[in-house]
Please model this.
Amino acid sequence: MKKRSTPNLDEHLQVLNQMREVGTDDFFYTRLRGRLQHTSSPPGWVLPFKPVWVLGLLLILLAVNGYVLRQEQKEKRYETTYTIQEFAQLYDQTISTTY
Model:
């Protein structure tokens, strides 16, 4: 096998060989693991509103909606429908038909 080497590559390899492993403080990984577990633990409730408030708001909206619908039904009961002849009689207009 032919060895391929250049002066630039040899220089970089010598620098890598001279490097030494860097140590850490005592209990570094224990503290790091504790911080990661603390930040990665899910909070108690993710949504901005609690379910109790959402359900309460929905019940209020349903009650208001029911009230509005009942009011519309009451108004429809009191509405009377007129035929064209009745409408003409109300305004003293006569419709003459040739038949």
Remarks:
- Residues 51-90 form one domain.
- DSSP finds four helices and no strands in the chain.
- The first helix runs from residue 7 to 18.
